[in-house]
Amino acid sequence: MKSTSSFLKMKQKQEPIAMMTAYDAPSAKAAAKAGMDLILVGDSAGMVVHGYDSTIPVTLDDIILHSKAVRRGAPDVFVVADLPFLTYNGEFSDTLYAVKRLMQQADVQAVKLEGGGQTLPTVQRLTEAGVPVMGHLGLTPQSVNVLGGYKVQGNTEETANRLVEEAQAVENSGAFALVLECVPRQLAAHISSLLNIPVIGIGAGAETNGQVLVFHDAIGFSDGFTPKFVKQYANVQHEIETALTHYVDDVKQLRFPEEKHTFTINEDMLGKFYGGIKS
Ligand code: KIV
């Protein structure tokens, strides 16, 4: 299994880091087989799996359940779990409780938390306590109601400068990596070259140290909106809808099950159970 120092070395050797979200055992297994460097159990699960319109309703129990499944599917891959909304903005003991459950019960290697500013002491205290922390700046979906929507961040002089300062502060607080979401590629490139830790982009251009995508976006498993920064590698939604339509049709037309899908018992046995078949 890779470690935080593997990711640092990958950055130093300019070897791109491939990360993707996963929420269950089969998707984690597929990610592992594909050679994913690390898996994120993202709170995007709230939107792509649970049908919420934001990540805010996702709970610690939700992330633990998904993380346990991911761990079973990919026992040898470094797994990062998102700390859900408001689990790291209050008492540090509450944050420790959440992290302890994630690391001890779900066996994740690291946690990710969004924002700079007031979260920085938490990043530092967690790191000092032995918890690898991944930062997340730019578009931070848990703050969607403050940001006023899912929009590109850091596209003015003031916000770009603030983002650079926050990224440096996240690194200085001890984070082992940083996710940069939805920022102009030039700014992401600048931040990536400024920091020592790997910067993993999503909607942040090609000059970061790695990329992350949401599993369902990457495989086209949704009939909703697809952001501009997503490359769809398959159209699983279409495949599933076609398959299910065929199934319904087969059931209605009595084409399924066929003989090869059924079990039989020999007539003697049947006779013993039911006294034989009466026609
Ligand atoms: O929750 C998530 O999937 C994420 C990625 C978008 C980085 O945080």
H and E order: HEHEHHEHEHEHHEHEEHHH
Mass-distribution shape: elongated
The share of residues in extended strands comes to: 5-15%
Instruction: Kindly report how far apart the N and C termini lie.
Output: 63 Å
Secondary-structure-derived class: alpha/beta
Give your account of this protein's structure:
The protein is of the alpha/beta class and 279 residues long. The chain folds into 2 domains: 4-234, Alpha-Beta Barrel (TIM Barrel); 239-270, no CATH class. The protein has 12 helices and 8 strands. The chain has helices at 4-12, 25-34, 45-48, 60-73, 92-105, 120-128, 144-147, 157-172, 185-194, 215-218, 236-252, 267-274; strands spanning 17-21, 38-41, 78-82, 110-114, 133-138, 177-181, 199-202, 210-213. An 8-stranded parallel barrel has the order 1-2-3-4-5-6-7-8, surrounded by 7 helices. 39% of the residues are buried. The site of 3-methyl-2-oxobutanoic acid has 12 residues, from β6. 3-methyl-2-oxobutanoic acid binds at residues 21, 40, 42-44, 82, 136, 179, 181, 202, 212, 214.
Concise account of the structure shown:
With 279 residues, this protein is an alpha/beta fold. It is built from twelve helices and eight strands. 3-methyl-2-oxobutanoic acid (KIV) is lined by residues 21, 40, 42-44, 82, 136, 179, 181, 202, 212, 214.
Task: Chart the SSEs and their pairings.
Blueprint: H1 4-12, E1 17-21, H2 25-34, E2 38-41, H3 45-48, H4 60-73, E3 78-82, H5 92-105, E4 110-114, H6 120-128, E5 133-138, H7 144-147, H8 157-172, E6 177-181, H9 185-194, E7 199-202, E8 210-213, H10 215-218, H11 236-252, H12 267-274
Parallel strand pairs: 1-2, 1-8, 2-3, 3-4, 4-5, 5-6, 6-7, 7-8
Helix pairs in contact: 2-4, 4-5, 8-9
The structure holds 3-methyl-2-oxobutanoic acid.
3-methyl-2-oxobutanoic acid binds at residues 21, 40, 42-44, 82, 136, 179, 181, 202, 212, 214.
